[in-house]
């Protein structure tokens, strides 16, 4: 198993993350998503589609007084996530479940949760080129989990006024808003993500509140890279421990 995994580090080596060398690998959108979540002590946070567990590891390291849960449908990835949690000594505040999100219940988390996060597959099952690698295909296309599956699960798990945060593609924004409203999650904030200042937005960070009041705000763009290819000041800060 070790030969097919690589190891990355965060926070000056304080967190290590193993992931598949050839399978699905996390990217900057996971870092942006994790940075936005700022739970209070004692709150419970669920990551739908956790992959190698990168989002729970970042959030759990920054906020050790919360309970973090990662849900992953692909067993091989769930096993890697679970091992990452153990390797970092975070078993006390992070748990990984290999589950289909369509079948999870609040009882798994001792009742409704405070925050749900997700980085769902961006593409419909029949759209575009499907990656021949099964892990990457499932992570990027709606093969086993659809957008409405993710939003419905978030709506079912969240307590009233609970927060839903996800990274998604702008081209499906109308559909996303429609599904959120149908699942009692009111869209509240959107920030479009750009690789460079003058490039087209390919991602967006969206927040919603369960049973929140209507009113959507569009915040300033998140720009990932400076002209020289280095991270912008905002993104560079996302790699810091706090």
Number of strands: 11
Unreliable parts: 135-139
Number of domains: 1
Number of helices: 7
Please name the fourth-level CATH homologous superfamily.
Vaccinia Virus protein VP39
The CATH architecture assignment turns out to be: 3-Layer(aba) Sandwich
- The helix/strand series, from N terminus to C terminus, equals EEHEHEHEEHHEHEEEEH
Task: Give your account of this protein's structure.
By secondary structure, the protein is α/β, with parallel strands linked by helices. The protein has one domain (2-237): Vaccinia Virus protein VP39 (Rossmann fold), CATH 3.40.50. Helix content is 26%, strand content 29%. It has helices at 28-36, 54-62, 75-87, 134-140, 147-157, 173-182, 233-237, and strands spanning 5-10, 15-20, 44-48, 67-72, 94-98, 113-118, 158-168, 185-194, 201-210, 217-218, 222-223. Strands 3, 4, 5, 6, 7, 8, 9, 10 and 11 form a nine-stranded mixed β-sheet that branches. A two-stranded antiparallel sheet has the order 1-2. Helix 1 runs parallel beside helix 2 (54-62). It is globular. The protein starts with a strand and ends in a 5-residue tail after the last helix. The model is unreliable at 135-139 (pLDDT under 50).
Considering the chains and any ligands shown, give keywords for the structure.
26% helix, 242 residues, 9-stranded mixed β-sheet, 11 strands, two-stranded antiparallel sheet, single chain, alpha/beta, globular, Rossmann fold
Q: What is the strand and helix layout of this fold?
A:
Layout: E1 5-10, E2 15-20, H1 28-36, E3 44-48, H2 54-62, E4 67-72, H3 75-87, E5 94-98, E6 113-118, H4 134-140, H5 147-157, E7 158-168, H6 173-182, E8 185-194, E9 201-210, E10 217-218, E11 222-223, H7 233-237
Helix pairs in contact: 1-2
